[in-house]
Amino acid sequence: MLALEPHDGDPIIELKSFSVAETCRRQGVGQRMLQHAIDTCRSLGYKGIKLLTLDVLPDARRLYERNGFRIVREEVVPHYRLYYYQLDLE
What we know:
This protein has helices spanning 29-43, 58-66, and strands spanning 2-5, 12-18, 48-54, 70-77, 80-88. With 90 residues, it is an alpha+beta fold.
């Protein structure tokens, strides 16, 4: 499942939800889903994609980083470290 959320007037779209069924992991499904989302956002004219993930999701973080997302902010909250990522599409 993958959900994108545009914000009025913002050229950066937000990746709100992204998950791959456990039985489909490590088969390239997540990579294909993410690439499709990136291509779609680019074709729709968005300037970038932003997202938030947690330190307890290292596989997701590696996927985002392999695809050019960079950390733009980190925040520590009780029990977690939050990572805010962004991908520039220009």
